[in-house]
Design a protein that fits this description.
13 helices; 291 residues; alpha/beta
Length: 291
């Protein structure tokens, strides 16, 4: 994955959906078959899944989205980007796209959203695959801070009101790479082309607000687990062996989700779709064949 894919639209259709609140969400639709909604990690975008989308599209009609405020979706400084807001936005999007019998796949905060969305509309959801669910924080940017010393230092500064605004404004690709590389294990670093894309997106007007606001709402991601008991569909929880979450935290999530199985992919970190896509594909293929 050292070189950028030749077609970042994955031979699909790119469009924007306007939500009820007037905000827009970027969508790439590709593949054929039953619908699959794909949601990315914190501070990333659709292209995080460049290795995975062709795999999903061979089995499903994939709707990959830039979560509200992320990627090329609109940013609004009047919005509080907590888990309930993002969940409501995804529910609105599903309704507008008229998706039913839906498979939800998400990574990190996208995994948490896949579970809370499934809890809200259980009759529309066929199954959920939640990768490295981000639902365990006990302090600001707790998960990210576990990645490495640089991530801990940067996120601590982000948490301080004045310092945080300055650090966010001064963010560059070098420091962003240091922080995000704390989320990979199998590979040495996130591919340069992808970091360049994240960096370019990070210089969009308002993006520094988005980054700090979503981290400020860390409590909402931990509280999301209160919704899990309402899920009716089968769920597979997948964790990288070296994900930021701890074993006890994974067990708590597994206990809260009905009809859940739990799989661990060895030698892999938080950004699993980048860090070890081949083993992730194998794990998901085995699950789909068995279900």
């Amino acid at each position: 994955m050292s070189d950028a894919p030749t077609d970042l639209k994955f031979n699909g259709e790119e469009f924007f959906v306007t939500l009820k609140d007037g905000e827009t969400v970027r969508v790439i639709k590709t593949g054929s078959g039953e619908p699959l909604l794909l949601m990315h990690t914190i501070r990333t975008q659709i292209e995080l899944f460049s290795e995975m989308i062709p795999f999903y599209a061979s089995k499903f009609t994939v709707y990959a989205i830039d979560l509200p405020g992320h990627g090329q979706s609109s940013i609004n400084k009047k919005i509080n980007y907590d888990e309930p807001y993002l969940r409501a936005s995804v529910l609105d999007l599903i309704d507008q796209l008229n998706l039913t019998n839906l498979t939800l796949i998400g990574e990190s905060i996208g995994a948490t959203l896949s579970l809370t969305v499934a809890a809200q509309i259980p009759d529309k959801i066929k199954q959920v695959i939640a990768v490295n669910t981000y639902d365990y924080e006990t302090r600001y940017a707790d998960g990210i801070r576990r990645g490495n010393v640089i991530a801990n230092f940067m996120m601590w500064n982000y948490s301080i009101p004045i310092n945080g605004a300055i650090f966010a404004a001064l963010e560059n690709r070098f420091f962003l790479s240091l922080v995000m590389n704390g989320g990979v294990t199998r590979i040495k670093k996130i591919p340069t082309w992808l970091m360049k894309m994240f960096d370019k997106t990070g210089h969009r007007p308002g993006y520094s607000f988005l980054g700090r606001n979503i981290l400020k709402n860390w409590r909402s991601w931990a509280q999301a687990t209160d919704q899990y008991h309402k899920i009716k569909s089968p769920v597979m929880l997948i964790y990288g062996e070296n994900d930021w979450s701890r074993q006890a935290e994974r067990y708590l999530t597994w206990k809260k989700v009905p009809n859940a199985t739990l799989e661990t992919i060895t030698g892999s970190g938080h950004f699993l779709s980048v860090d070890n896509p081949e083993d992730l594909k194998k794990t998901i293929s085995q699950y789909l064949q068995a279900n």
